[in-house]
Each structure stands twice: as structure tokens, then as C-alpha cells.
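Try this one yourself first.
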């Protein structure tokens, strides 16, 4: 982050602008809208500057810049068409540790002007750090169409009730939950219809009838890795949660999308490294919900496909804790798609089995006979540690040794790696390529299509390849 975004109160603060042309005029208009007390120095001035002087909004000094003009100023803007003058302003301001903006010269900027979306008192600023101002402006234009005009009146209404809410509702989390209910209520729709009195009355009624609310748990699938594969509902609940209980498989890039002030609790869970037993995780969810918190239980993949979401819900039921489940893209679907492998294809496979190579009850073996039938796809989760056993059993029960297979390591992620071969080579490939978790095994005739259908990253030149993340511009 090259610049720290700040909102500075400029009401009646002294600001110097060097330059009197059209560029200086644009900056001056922005500063005046923020209440700054302007001094402008230039040999000549655009007509609007003269009008502002007559209205008492700006002091104009006809002449040239001297360092003494910086005395007592909070900010300075160099906006002339003379590079030498702009450089002199920058040098003099820097020597005084003043914040300076040199128009169209990003290296000589101690601060920059963002593109602004004004829904006062809601203000949104967008910046490219001076590298792509036209792009920043395009983003602002896009957001302008998405943000309704009633945001300003809504913020003003909320502001008037803030002290009342604080007095009636104890605790930050409880107050935040109240405001979230307000923003989902008819209060907003009344303002949309330009009925501010009705909106204020309804907000007052909501506050008067407010009662302590019970906590709840959201069992949310985070998908296989790529943050862009999150569902919209998953993202919404991540932003509303008081606390997020997550696994190792949830990438830091996904956790960055969680609300900033939410508590984060990692319960581990990756092959061979369970930092918290499942029963302790179940008890933790119950404990947090009983404290009145909104708990987002964030899991890699899908909660109901080898995610143990059902076990966690079974722990909530006796305590009568409300819950909901948000499906996620499971690893088999996401990783296979990003590797260019259709799990079903009418010419190759008419069925698919999702199988786990881990967490089986003692003595409860998979149905190897069923798994060994041709023209079906096996998607095996957590199978790397048992690769040799999986290979042996499938061959023993009659699966063709030449059956194509793929090992997808870190599927859908920037560091995704796909290793292809045949069933007879499975254990050897895992050892030779030093495959690490998370990794998915895909076994079946459909894997033969991988070299044709691969799309994620550069087309591979060999059977073993790494794929950089690509995005459409």
C-alpha cells in the first residue's frame, strides 16, 4: 500500500494552490466543496477564480510562487503547466514536511486526489495511486450506477439514532446486529420512496421493541480454493458474522473477505494435523452461539461432502440453536473443472463416485468391486496417503491398469499442479512428484480428455505441469 487512505477535515483549513488554469480550477472546486480556505497564486486566473474571490471563497495573489507562501498552510497543490515551477513547489513543501500534490506527476505527490463518490455523509474514494487515473474514474462511474441516492439520507437517519441505540442495546456485537436488521427492513424502502418521516417512525418502533436475540450458526462452504468461487450468500454471511471458525483449507485470500472486526478461530483440520478434535469444534460452536453470537463455520469445499457439516449440526439440534447451511463448490467439481476434466461424459463415463481415502471407520472398507467398474469416474478425496493401497485394490478388483488418472494438487489455486498418468503408475507418481495435500485423485476414462480441454493457465507441454492463475481483463 503506497498511500494510506485518510479522510481529512478541511473546514476552514488553509490550503495553497499554485496555478490559476483549468487544472487548478478542478482541484480548487474539490477543496472548496470540503470547506477549505483557499489561497491561489498565479500570474493569471480563470474567470471562475475571480467569481470565487468576489464571493469570499478564495484569496487570489497575482504573481509567482515563493516558498514563503507555504507558511501556515496545511496542504499545497502544484497545478501549473511549468514543470520547473511545480518541482520548486514540491521541493519547498517537502523541506517543510508539508503534504503536497503535484498534478500529473505522481512521484512528486505526498498525497493524491482520489475519484470520489459523494453520498454525504457517505463518501467513497477510489485511487490507483496516480498510476491509472482514467481507470479509477471508470470504476467510480461504475459504482455511481450501483449506489442509490438514498444512502445519504439513510446515513443521516442512522446518525440521529446512534446515541439512542447505544443507550438501549449493550455491547458492540448486539448493536451491529440491530443495525443490520434495520438495513434489511422497510426503513430503507421508506427512504427509497422519499418518505423520511415514516422511515424515522419505523426505526423508532424497531428500537422500542428490540429484544436480545439468540445466536445462530451458519455452516458455510468456502469452495475448493479460488476466492472467486465463493457463493454470493457465503460472502454475505462472512461479512455479517461476529466470529468465523475456519479450517486450514480456507485460504488467507478468502479470510481477507471476512468482516474486519470479526473474531477468527482456526480449528485446524488437514490430513495428519487435527489441531482441534471434532467434538471440541462442535462444543465451540454451541458455546459461541449461546453467547448470542452469529457464528460462521467456514469449511473448504462443501460442508456436506466429506466436510462433517452434518455432525456439527447434530450438536446444535439438542441446544435448539438456529442454523443454516450454505453449499460450496466441492473439490471434485472445482478441481476437475480447473484441470479440464469433465467428471461425466456420455462417450466416456455415465456416472461418478465421490470417495474418501481418509476418516473411515475401522474395518469399513469402500466397495472396491463397485469402484472398479469401467466407464465411471472416481473422485477420491484425501487419497494421497493411501495411494498405493487404492491402486492395489482397484487393480485387484479388475480396473484396467491403463485407466487414465490425474492427481490435482492445490486445485483452483494459483499454484495448481496437475499430474497425469495411468492407474498402474499412481503410487509411483505420488512419490516421484512429491505430491502434497490438498490433492484430489481423479481416475477414469474422462481423464483422457484433459490434454484437450485444459484451460486454466498455459497449455501444458508435458504430463506434469504447474499452472499460473489467469484472469480475463
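Now uncover the answer:
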Amino acid at each position: 500500500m503506497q498511500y494510506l487512505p485518510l479522510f481529512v477535515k478541511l473546514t476552514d483549513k488553509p490550503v495553497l494552490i499554485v496555478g490559476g488554469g483549468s487544472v487548478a480550477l478542478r482541484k480548487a472546486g474539490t477543496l472548496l466543496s470540503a470547506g477549505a480556505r483557499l489561497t491561489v497564486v498565479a500570474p493569471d486566473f480563470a474567470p471562475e477564480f475571480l467569481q470565487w474571490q468576489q464571493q469570499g471563497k478564495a484569496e487570489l495573489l497575482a504573481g509567482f510562487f515563493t516558498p514563503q507562501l507555504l507558511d501556515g498552510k496545511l496542504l499545497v497543490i502544484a497545478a501549473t503547466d511549468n514543470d520547473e515551477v511545480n518541482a520548486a513547489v514540491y521541493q519547498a513543501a517537502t523541506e517543510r514536511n508539508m503534504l503536497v500534490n503535484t498534478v500529473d506527476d505522481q512521484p512528486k505527490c505526498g498525497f493524491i486526489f482520489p475519484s470520489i463518490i459523494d453520498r454525504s455523509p457517505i463518501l467513497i474514494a477510489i485511487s490507483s495511486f496516480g498510476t491509472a487515473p482514467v481507470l479509477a474514474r471508470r470504476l467510480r462511474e461504475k459504482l455511481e450506477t450501483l449506489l442509490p441516492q438514498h444512502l445519504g439520507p439513510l446515513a443521516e437517519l442512522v446518525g440521529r439514532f446512534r446515541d439512542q441505540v447505544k443507550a438501549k442495546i449493550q455491547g458492540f456485537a448486539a448493536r451491529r446486529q440491530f443495525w443490520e436488521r434495520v438495513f434489511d427492513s422497510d426503513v430503507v424502502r421508506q427512504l427509497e420512496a422519499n418518505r423520511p418521516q415514516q422511515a424515522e417512525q419505523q426505526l423508532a418502533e424497531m428500537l422500542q421493541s428490540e429484544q436480545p436475540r439468540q445466536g445462530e450458526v451458519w455452516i458455510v462452504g468456502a469452495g475448493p480454493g479460488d476466492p472467486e468461487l465463493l457463493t454470493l450468500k457465503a460472502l454475505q454471511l462472512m461479512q455479517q458474522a461476529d466470529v468465523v471458525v475456519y479450517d486450514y483449507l480456507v485460504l488467507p485470500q478468502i479470510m481477507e473477505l471476512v468482516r474486519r472486526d470479526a473474531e477468527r478461530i482456526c480449528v485446524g483440520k488437514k490430513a495428519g494435523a487435527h489441531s482441534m478434535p471434532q467434538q471440541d469444534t462442535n462444543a465451540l460452536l454451541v458455546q459461541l452461539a449461546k453467547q448470542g453470537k452469529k457464528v460462521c463455520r467456514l469449511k473448504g469445499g462443501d460442508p456436506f461432502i466429506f466436510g462433517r457439516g452434518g455432525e456439527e449440526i447434530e450438536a446444535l439440534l439438542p441446544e435448539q440453536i438456529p442454523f443454516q447451511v450454505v453449499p460450496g463448490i466441492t473439490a471434485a467439481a472445482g478441481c476437475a473443472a480447473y484441470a479440464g476434466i469433465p467428471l461425466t461424459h456420455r462417450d466416456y463415463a455415465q456416472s461418478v463416485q465421490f470417495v474418501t481415502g481418509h476418516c473411515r471407520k475401522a474395518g469399513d472398507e469402500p466397495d472396491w468391486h463397485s469402484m472398479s467398474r469401467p466407464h465411471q469416474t472416481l473422485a477420491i478425496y484425501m487419497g494421497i496417503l493411501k495411494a498405493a493401497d487404492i491402486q492395489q485394490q482397484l487393480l485387484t478388483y479388475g480396473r484396467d491398469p491403463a485407466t487414465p488418472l490425474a492427481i490435482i494438487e492445490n486445485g483452483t489455486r494459483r499454484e495448481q499442479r496437475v499430474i497425469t498418468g495411468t492407474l498402474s503408475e499412481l503410487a509411483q507418481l505420488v512419490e516421484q512428484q512429491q505430491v502434497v495435500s490438498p490433492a484430489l485423485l481423479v481416475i477414469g476414462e474422462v481423464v483422457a480428455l484433459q490434454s484437450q480441454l485444459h484451460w486454466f493457465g498455459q497449455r501444458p507441454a508435458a504430463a506434469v505441469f504447474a499452472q499460473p492463475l489467469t484472469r480475463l481483463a
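Discussion: The first strand starts at residue 14 and ends at 18. Residues 151-168 form the longest helix (18 residues).
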